[in-house]
């Protein structure tokens, strides 16, 4: 068993040395494609953070001053209930201090300095409002103006002011980055395939001799498949390192953005990046295995 493992690794290393240029090209292409794939997932997560407040059909948020007493909250709730009774608002939900702090963890993920300044005593709470389907934007804008004058109301925000731009950006980025990483992933698979094919042709006489002395097809294939797997995994590790560095630099850079820009939510600091790293590693290994496996099977009869 150990002799077979030693043979497998020796042959894999020898194949690497024979095809250095093709191997490096395959690893770089795999790394770039996997990097774009990982960044696409992180960007999607960032947009999801931006849109978190607007899930469930929420189209208006009424921010309440910190420390507002129960009677002040009841006054705002009664005003919203009147809209529910009139049919212009379908439902509303109050987000208390704990809920608002959890919301701030996401919205201010890229601005930890500001987040640290918020606590139970000074964070604004909020009402999330879901309008009826028949309620138009003009009416919501009028409702916004009216609610901004209510006692204890800090501000009112409409989804229309943010969602259109966010959705357009999300669609644009997702479409083009997804197409790019798919194309590059296919290119890296083809490069690995071509590397293994070249290696097998370079050793065709050895393969013929091995078959004559009784070596099985799998015994011959394994070193070549291992070579493709290693290429994919090396590309994945390079992509993971680059992705984590870019994510770190982006997170540091967002801290300097104005609070009003809303961009502080476009960061991923909740551990999701490590799940993406595992996905990248799995994809790299899969691409390497598929490319080398097809080549090793297709060109075994040399």
From TrEMBL:
**Main location class:** membrane
Stated membrane topology is:
Multi-pass membrane protein
State the source organism's domain of life.
Answer: Bacteria
Asked if the keyword tRNA-binding belongs to this entry, the reply reads no
Transmembrane stretches in the record are 20-43, 178-196, 229-250, 272-296
**GO BP annotations, alphabetical order:** cell division
Annotated localization = Cell membrane
Pfam short name (any one): FtsX
Which keywords describe this protein according to UniProt? Cell cycle, Cell division, Cell membrane, Membrane, Transmembrane, Transmembrane helix
One CC-aspect GO term? plasma membrane
Residue ranges of every copy of the ABC3 transporter permease C-terminal domain listed in the record:
183-299
Q: Which family does it belong to?
A: Belongs to the ABC-4 integral membrane protein family. FtsX subfamily.
Q: What is this protein called?
A: Cell division protein FtsX
Record organism:
Ilumatobacter fluminis
């Amino acid at each position: 068993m150990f002799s077979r493992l030693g043979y497998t690794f020796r042959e894999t290393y020898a194949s690497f040395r024979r095809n250095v240029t093709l191997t490096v090209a395959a690893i770089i292409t795999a790394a770039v494609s996997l990097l774009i794939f990982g960044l696409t997932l992180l960007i999607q997560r960032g947009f999801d953070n931006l849109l978190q407040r607007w899930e469930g059909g929420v189209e208006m948020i009424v921010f309440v001053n910190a420390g507002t007493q129960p009677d002040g909250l009841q006054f705002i709730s009664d005003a919203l209930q009147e809209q529910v009774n009139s049919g212009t608002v379908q439902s509303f939900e109050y987000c208390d201090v704990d809920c608002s702090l959890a919301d701030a963890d996401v919205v201010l993920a890229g601005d930890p300095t500001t987040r640290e300044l918020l606590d139970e005593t000074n964070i604004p709470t909020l009402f999330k409002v879901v309008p009826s389907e028949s309620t138009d934007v003009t009416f919501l804008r009028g409702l916004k103006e009216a609610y901004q004058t209510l006692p204890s109301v800090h501000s009112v925000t409409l989804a229309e002011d943010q969602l259109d731009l966010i959705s357009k950006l999300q669609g644009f980025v997702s479409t083009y980055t997804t197409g790019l990483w798919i194309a590059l992933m296919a290119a890296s698979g083809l490069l690995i395939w071509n590397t293994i094919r070249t290696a097998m042709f370079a050793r065709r006489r050895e393969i013929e001799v091995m078959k004559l002395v009784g070596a099985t097809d799998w015994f011959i294939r394994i070193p070549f498949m291992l070579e493709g797997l290693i290429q994919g995994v090396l590309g994945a590790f390079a992509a993971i390192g680059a992705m984590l560095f870019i994510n770190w630099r982006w997170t540091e850079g967002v801290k300097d953005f104005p609070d009003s820009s809303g961009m502080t939510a476009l960061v991923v600091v909740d551990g999701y990046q490590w799940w993406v790293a595992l996905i990248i590693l799995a994809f790299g290994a899969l691409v390497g295995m598929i490319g080398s496996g097809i080549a090793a099977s297709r060109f075994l009869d040399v």
